[in-house]
């Protein structure tokens, strides 16, 4: 019978001693400080740093979330004050016995005149800008610039319609 003979295995030793590890860490930190201007020393923060950052965080939070709320609140306030002033005027007219005009209670809707010239020029320039942008980005090779043809032709259509519109003397509102 054969018996297994234990063989001596060499002890695995770490490749570097703690002194060499510290030297490597120091060399890396020196290079970092030299090239990047900061050190990796562990900074123990004290409680004063947190109190300095708290107002900054609070101001940023209010700015980001408070500004839209403030804008909506201002719009609502001014529309309410305008409505209240109109009601006060109507009440004073009724108290004095004056007739209340229909236009005060139901104002006529605002009619804006259609401007095909303005739309046409806007679409034309948007299309031209898109053609130049996509052409410059792709080097005029891939055909991506042709995406700008669509708004360009829409603008050209508005300009043609503006030029051919024969009812320019008509005073009726165009919507």
What does it look like?
The N and C termini lie far apart (109 Å). Helix 4 runs antiparallel to helix 5. It is flat and about 120 Å long. Helices cover 64% and strands 0% of the residues. It is mostly helical. The longest helix is centred in the middle third of the chain and has 50 residues, at 47-96. The chain has helices at residues 18-36, 47-96, 102-105, 116-138, 149-164. Among the domains are: 47-105, no CATH class; 116-164.
Q: Report how far apart the termini are.
A: 109 Å
Structural class from helices and strands? mainly alpha
Portion of residues in helices? 55-70%
Low-confidence stretches: none
Taken as a percent bin, the fraction of beta residues is under 5%
**SSE order:** HHHHH
Number of strands: 0
Broad shape: flat
Largest sheet: none
Mean pLDDT, nearest integer?
Answer: 80
- Number of H- or I-type helical stretches: 5
Which radius of gyration do the C-alpha atoms yield? 38 Å
Keywords:
175 residues; mainly alpha; flat
Write the layout of secondary structure elements.
Blueprint: H1 18-36, H2 47-96, H3 102-105, H4 116-138, H5 149-164
Helix pairs in contact: 4-5
Provide a short characterization of the protein structure:
With 175 residues, the chain is an all-alpha fold. It contains five helices and no strands. The mean pLDDT is 80.
